[in-house]
């Protein structure tokens, strides 16, 4: 179950942000999961609860955001939302497409206890 390993990395990331902002507590974190990431959010949430036990991230609520699969066609150069059931170009139906996004598991933002939302890139 790779969600446990992911949950550990996620906890570390959240704690890094907390340390950077000298936050004693983290109320929530927004996590983006791509359609192709193959991550089960429930398992990830469970793993996070375990991994964050006894840290500043304990009790932090995870908010999941879905990142749709986006593909770009190599024939007609169209870019759009891909269909997991029917892979191919959303415009011309061509099979030569590349994945633009949808594989990512990303920490989008973290709410620290002063109520301000801080981006990980801030
Ligand atoms: Zn196309």
Please characterize this protein's 3D structure.
The protein has a domain of 80 residues: 2-Layer Sandwich (hypothetical protein PF0899 fold). The chain is elongated and about 50 Å long. α1 crosses α2. With 122 residues, it is an alpha+beta fold. A four-stranded mixed β-sheet has the order 2-1-6-7, covered by helices on one side. Helices cover 25% and strands 32% of the residues. It binds zinc ion. The site of zinc ion (ZN) has 8 residues, from loops.
| Order of secondary-structure elements | HEHEEEEEE
The assigned CATH architecture of one domain is 2-Layer Sandwich
**Spatial strand arrangement across the major sheet:** 2-1-6-7
CATH topology grouping of one domain: hypothetical protein PF0899 fold
Note the topology:
Elements: H1 2-20, E1 26-34, H2 41-51, E2 61-67, E3 70-73, E4 79-81, E5 97-101, E6 105-112, E7 117-119
Parallel strand pairs: 1-2
Antiparallel strand pairs: 1-6, 3-4, 3-5, 6-7
This protein binds zinc ion (ZN).
Key traits:
122 residues, elongated, three-stranded antiparallel sheet, alpha+beta, hypothetical protein PF0899 fold, 2 helices, binds zinc ion, four-stranded mixed sheet
Quick summary:
This protein has 122 residues and is of the alpha+beta class. It has two helices and seven strands. The protein is 25% helix and 32% strand.
